[in-house]
């Protein structure tokens, strides 16, 4: 596409451009390039921030703040690193600061993923009830999962949320948390075991009631 087309149809020009190349245009002041990055990452950033804050409004506000920081500090970006890693690092740091301010953090994991961790033998995971009862039970289970994740030590919780909820690669998580790949894997494995133990304890308490 020509430079003239880039001016006349900026969204079409930037639509398929890699993030890192878009940032080159953002550095020069292109609002259209920046808008494309916002479109690509807004929902993902809002989701990851929400996993930390458990507050939709704050997640929206902090997502906007993340993009403001990207734009204000656009000249600091270096193409030697992935843009996704850079912006997720900004978002996670904002989320952590919010959590520290509120002195509270909770997370959510899908019931299907929980079944992968625990298996379907636990009574509170079975789907042998009427649909209405299952819906209520799923809500209750989500609450239990939130509480269990919230109680994990921060170093393990961060790795778990980024991998199992946001589905980032081990490499991206390592760059965001500034730890080696081996440490990423060990923290995720440890977090899964700790979560599994907490949820099995809950299941046993349910059986005894």
From TrEMBL:
Tree of life domain: Bacteria
Residue span(s) of domain RNA polymerase sigma factor 70 region 4 type: 145-195
Alphabetized GO MF terms: DNA binding; sigma factor activity
Xref: CDD domains: Sigma70_r4
UniProt-listed Pfam families: Sigma70_r2, Sigma70_r4_2
Keywords: DNA-binding, Sigma factor, Transcription, Transcription regulation
Biological processes per GO annotation: DNA-templated transcription initiation
Start and end residues of each RNA polymerase sigma-70 region domain: 37-104
Stated family: Belongs to the sigma-70 factor family. ECF subfamily.
Protein name: RNA polymerase sigma factor
């Amino acid at each position: 596409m020509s430079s003239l087309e880039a001016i006349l149809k900026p969204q079409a020009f930037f639509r398929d451009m890699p993030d890192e190349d878009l940032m080159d245009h953002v550095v020069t002041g292109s609002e259209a390039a920046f808008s494309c990055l916002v479109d690509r990452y807004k929902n993902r950033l809002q989701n990851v921030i929400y996993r930390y804050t458990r507050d939709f409004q704050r997640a929206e506000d902090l997502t906007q703040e993340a993009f403001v920081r990207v734009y204000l500090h656009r000249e600091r970006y270096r193409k030697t690193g992935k843009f996704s890693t850079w912006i997720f690092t900004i978002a996670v740091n904002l989320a952590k600061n919010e959590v520290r301010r509120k002195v509270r953090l909770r997370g959510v994991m899908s019931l299907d993923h929980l079944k992968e961790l625990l298996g379907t033998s636990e009574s509170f995971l079975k789907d042998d009830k009427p649909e209405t009862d299952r819906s209520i039970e799923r809500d209750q289970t989500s609450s239990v999962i939130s509480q269990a994740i919230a109680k994990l030590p921060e170093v393990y919780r961060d790795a778990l949320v980024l991998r199992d909820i946001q589905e980032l690669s081990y490499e991206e998580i390592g760059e965001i948390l500034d730890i080696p790949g081996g440490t990423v894997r060990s923290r995720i494995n440890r977090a899964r075991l700790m979560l599994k133990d907490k949820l099995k304890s809950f299941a046993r308490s349910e059986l005894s009631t």
